Fold:
Amino acid sequence: MLGTKELKEKFLRVKTVPLLSKVDDIHAICSLLKDFLRNLKEPLLTFRLNKTFMEAAEITDEDNSIAAMYQAVGELPQANRDTLAFLMIHLQRVAQSPNTKMDVANLAKVFGPTIVAHAVPNPDPVIMLQDIKRQPKVVERLLSLPVEYWSQFMMVEQENIDPMHVIENSNAFSTPQTPDIKVSLLGPVTTPEHQLLKTPSSSSLSQRVRSTLTKNTPRFGSKSKSATNLGRQGNFFASPMLK
Structure:
């Protein structure tokens, strides 16, 4: 049986992605994913946007909090955003499965420290303790965003993806270097949510956002132009593929 260490070494040695369906220990796969995220040169949500995400998650008005979260996601580098989208869709499925016994709150506690982390590489102990309480709130809010929203970032034509410039993280995983541009492969990273954020929102802001997404965004896994049946992919980090 492959443990986390053996599975990690297998990923580093071989050129192709190991068949994870053959791995009996699901905890080893989860630990490997967290190990990968933890050892990126900077958190998936980046140092620069750490405070932005935390403040967005702590807005007491739900509609304004959701709108601020959309804005923060839109400011992420493309590879970070696409990888986050893939991860959120997967974790939403995990939360919905009765077999996993992991609800959104539990998943947020598990992945908060690795996805959100801190605003600096080496925070002092006081900041670390403060962040530990705030990190799960960010992941909970991200998981509350509709699957239609996350799916739009996975609907990218493969031929339009720029060649990857590979960099290495401290754990020897390879990740694509994201160009220093804030432009989506689908056009400017400007969505209806961003426009709504620019003006004072009413209590129905999140409903308006979700309504817009539902009308304009293909549902993930549908028979329309889905990422799965057309062989499309986003500009993801080279993270393990989970079934």
Q: What stands out?
A: The longest helix spans residues 125-144.
